[in-house]
């Protein structure tokens, strides 16, 4: 059975405050390692079987990695990549907004408690995301251009403009508006 320590040991293999390139780019070998080691646990988390992990900062972090990050690696380009997003946000609301577990973690670890809000297509969640990420402004790595805080603002700008993330439209079976199609054709990046 997978434990929170297994998830965190894999995800933060280079240390709890070190960014890994594989986290935010396509890496087939990294995705395969996640599939081999954590596909069953990711599904169990999605079904709510691991919700008891949300009672302590470290295990809550592991749960949010299973709910918010691993599905994006395991199901790229499909609706399943986003299928546990609402569950991840509910856990994040509890562990971050109600219990402030984030304050017990390293700054890089906190990013993964905040990303469920950044991944939301709700403007209110985007506002929470930006506020949380702005709290990391004194960390030069996160405050640099194209850093974590900048990406939070970019995600918010897309939701402010379109009310959703147009790059998800195909995976979610949604038709793109003319404005979204133009934006996507121009690169549609963050």
TrEMBL record:
Pfam families: DUF924. InterPro entries: DUF924, TPR-like_helical_dom_sf. Gene3D superfamilies: Tetratricopeptide repeat domain (1.25.40.10), TPR-like (1.20.58.320). This is DUF924 domain-containing protein. It comes from Roseomonas fluvialis.
